[in-house]
Amino acid sequence: WQAVAMGQRMFVAVVPPDSVREDLEAFLDARPGLRWSHPHQWHVTLAFFASVPEHRIDELGDRLATKASKRHTVTTALAGGGAFPNPARASVLWLGLDGGTEELTHLAASAHAAGAKVGAPPDGTRFSPHLTVARLRPPIEATKWLRVLDSYRGPAWEVAEVELLASFLGEGPGGRPRYETVARFPLGRVGEEAAP
Predict the structure, then answer these.
(1) Are 109 and 127 spatial neighbours (Cβ–Cβ below 8 Å)?
(2) 12, 84, 115, 179: which is deepest, by most CB within 10 A?
(3) What 3-state DSSP class applies to 167?
(4) Dihedral angle at the C-alpha atoms of 136, 139, 145, 149, nearest 10 degrees?
(5) 176 to 27, 31, 34, 35, 170: CA distances (angstroms)
(6) pTM for the structure as a whole
């Protein structure tokens, strides 16, 4: 059966706490004009796997737990806007991260390696830390929206864990994807800035 053969769509992500999502939601709600992403979908993707073999999901979790235990916690905040592929024909608007990006880049590389080891090579290119706030169909000229996003700086929070999530296309509100947390993996070392 095709669905079994294809495996599970999954990704590893940093999910902001409720207080951070509520702050961003209040900021975006006051700026109508675009269909903003749903707050329950907000996350920073570290690695995306289009197809994880069902019989290797537990092994992927074990590998991610080991990798996470060797990484530092970091403090970060959502700040600064951007667009993919560019502001002139933006199909995605996003907020960047201020703080912790070097450690998160190492964590993303570890997650990529874990996926590759279980037969789920990661999709995408080099890790670019961002949180998607809008997907635009058709693409738009987004300079004014980038000015709006550039004015935002959210509350800082400590990234102390990463999550492995399953993605179910079209099952969420309004035909959006539905995400389900499969496991959480604590980061094992206190952040570098707190080290003596």
Answers:
(1) yes
(2) 12
(3) strand
(4) 60
(5) 22, 21, 15, 12, 5
(6) 0.90
